[in-house]
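Narrative summary of target 7.
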Amino acid sequence: MKIRAAVLERMGLEGPYAESKPLQVQEIELGQPGPGEVIIKMAAAGICHSDLSIIEGVRPRPLPMVIGHEAAGVVTAVGPYVDDLVPGDHVVTVFVAACGHCPECSGGRPALCGPGAVAGTKGTLLRGDRRLMRQDEYLNHHSGISAFAEYAVVSARSLVKVDKEIPLAHAALFGCAVLTGVGAATNTASISLGSTVAIVGMGGVGLAAQLGALAAGASDVIAIDTNEHKLAFAKELGARHVFHAADPHLVEAIRDLTHGGVDVALEFAGAASALETAWKVGRRGGEVVTAGLARPDATFAVPMVGLVAEERTLKGSYMGSSVPSRDLPRYLELFRRGRLPIDKLVTHTLPLDDINLGMDRLKNGEAVRQVVTFD
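Modeled conformation, tokenized:
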């Protein structure tokens, strides 16, 4: 079938992207679903910093590629051996397709699925196939999703069925921002009733983590960023204190406020300086969780004596250490009850044709979460 999709041909183009147009909205061909695959009609797709990282060339991927990985839509057709989804089901995409039988999946850590990671790196679906074509050329899939398109063929293992009462424009954010941010706060980190929490990097994922930390019972959330608008947004969403990341007195001030440092520090900026800040504002016996995807060559030096003498903990968190089939229904129920107001993170909606403008807004810090909507 013919569809319209945003195709990335070349990484590293200079901005503004509304002029250089790294993403070309084109008509391409979508193949039929193979075994274990389905077709979904996209309803909404969130614009994430991971998408921008590919455009910038920070996280290289095989090109040409239809990018986008955070989405929600409606199943329109199913391939052979799909018995848990039917046409008409509403679904949220998950950017790691879990095979279900590798050591990581068997151990209850589907976010670390080996075959899913290999497929994502190669630009294929979970089984190794590509269903996107342009004339006689195959196009690559982004994280097995390729959400910036009217329709997509995806593995059924990349989808979680959701209640039809949830607006799909809001449900889309649960596929990445919520899984990653709320998951880092509630799965990876040890946040409990009364915990003090600092969050470095208040983009869509960091703000989702703030909402997750508050839902988990954190008494104080401290927001840290270089963008004053995002700090004000964090304050509106319940942060008790906010600090500009360049404040030279930041560490001392936070240690004074929390009587020695926070229980948990979460980092989402993907920069060594941000992780260093998270480490410095933590208390003795405290925990630092990083979920910010840095450049592949970025490094961070850990003071070894602090790990021992202060019993500090440093953890990585990918996809919020989530089990999507378990966690997404929980998060959606919290959203339904008003305890996880993810809809407040949406600052812009836009059509597919304005996708490059959306990337400019993200790069310039003008947006928290933007959602591409499809008629």
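The CA atoms of residues 235 and 266 lie 17 Å apart.
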